[in-house]
Amino acid sequence: MDKLIVHGGRKLSGSVNISGAKNASLPILAAALLTDEDVIIRRVPDVSDTNYMIQILSALGAQVERSSGTVRISAKDITHDAPYELVRKMRASICVMGPLLARLGKARVSLPGGCVIGDRPVDLHLKGLRAIGTVIDMEGGNMDMTTPNGLIGAEVDLRGKQGPTVLGTDNLMMAAVLAKGTTVIESAAAEPEVVDLANFLIGMGAQIEGAGTRRITIEGVEKLHGVEHTIIPDRIEAGTFMVAGAMAAEKEGITLNRICREHLAPVAEKLIEAGHNVHFNEAGTTVTVSPGAHPTGAKIVTAPHPGFPTDMQAQFSSLFAVTKGISVIEDTIFPQRFMHCAEMGRMGANIKVDSGTAVIEGVESLSAAPVMASDLRASAALVLSALTAKGSTEINRVYHIDRGYEHIDEKLLTLGADVERVQE
Ligand SMILES: CC(=O)N[C@H]1[C@@H](OP(=O)(O)OP(=O)(O)OC[C@H]2O[C@@H](n3ccc(=O)[nH]c3=O)[C@H](O)[C@@H]2O)O[C@H](CO)[C@@H](O)[C@@H]1O
Ligand SMILES: C=C(OP(=O)(O)O)C(=O)O
Q1: Mean pLDDT score of the chain, rounded to an integer?
Q2: Active-site residue 341, yes or no?
Q3: What is the pTM of this model?
Q4: Is the pLDDT of residue 181 over 80?
Q5: Domains plus CATH for the chain?
Q6: 14/16 Cα distance (integer angstroms)
Q7: Is ipTM strictly over 0.95?
Q8: NCBIfam families recorded for this chain (predicted)?
Q9: Helical pair 265-273 and 235-248, crossing angle rounded to 10 deg
Q10: Residue nearest to atom 29 of ligand 1 (CA)
Q11: Which of 19, 180, 293, 295 has the smallest number of Cβ neighbours within 10 A?
Q12: Cβ(91) – ligand 2 distance below 6 Å
């Protein structure tokens, strides 16, 4: 199991390229199952989650070739049974449900388990798929799905207690593209990754309107064809490096290339509110972030897009842990997503977590300690904390970070951080 050792206190400078979005790549890779023609997807990040998805597609019978960021998929003869051993490793494997139902009229996928960031039910996925004609039989931890009368378009409201569902919207959209008639998804997720999937499907010949709004309309078509598509930049990776810039850059800041300004608006606004410097180029494709002269704490409440993303709140905990004053972070989407706070406490952070809210009292500096990554964004928060901490922080279980950050240690080294990956 690899660990990262971060020798804190180095100032960051220079620039790095942001990778394609993990959370757009996963459903888009699954959507390649919707056609028997070749699909080419560019800028797929080399992270363990995309590798698991590729393994699942291969286990389902697809021919997959990967050459650096480009993945070519040919899903001519596929089966409907997604193997438990692979599915259990990654929640996003449930993205294959929609495409398998649309293409084969049946699917067998294991129920994903709980998750350290909190309860993650699939009731809304099932509600959507049932509404368009899927019959679901739960047995032995598996969801056995059939479509006795085929998939038939319907109007479905996917609002859950915590708001819309991203992968639930994706699953229904992927099933509905080959259904008979019109499907309307009300209370749809509007995240940029949902829009990227919709654009991919439209490129395959699907008829979809309204992606990026709360109402998506899908007119089913007979057949989809092959497509070439480039994945959008990863706004969470970019946001994580933006926080690194605010915490640890030289006066001139660090620059991130291949970003999309519109997707980064909530993160940029919070950094500016907290007193830091954020400058986009005119085209909105690069951003430079440097620490402000008078940083202040702030209040963050996570919300569905275009609100502040839950996937960025842990990283802001690191920033606020060393920012004078009191900051408050409330996660309305995953109220239990605060595992990083206890580990940061071991480094000297002063954070109290109660009922989905963290109250952070900034301290002068953190000091190194051996810490344990508990989940993807929690590990990013620990790396950020370690960049400014006094001494050498050992971060264990970095396989969590490798799920979603492409070569993070190499990118940090490029920016001048002192980071080592140690294999045990
Ligand atoms: C691979 C991927 O893209 N993952 C992202 C996706 O996860 P994912 O799509 O799994 O998250 P959802 O948008 O579905 O979850 C939003 C909320 O809805 C609840 N819910 C969800 C489904 C359901 O059937 N019933 C239900 O109650 C969840 O518990 C949560 O409180 O969106 C999350 C919210 O932006 C991000 O944190 C994840 O990084
Ligand atoms: C929580 C995340 O991913 P997943 O939904 O795949 O667990 C994430 O990307 O922050």
Answers
A1: 97
A2: no
A3: 0.98
A4: yes
A5: 3-19+233-422 (3.65.10.10), 22-230 (3.65.10.10)
A6: 7
A7: yes
A8: murA, PRK09369.1
A9: 20
A10: 120
A11: 293
A12: yes
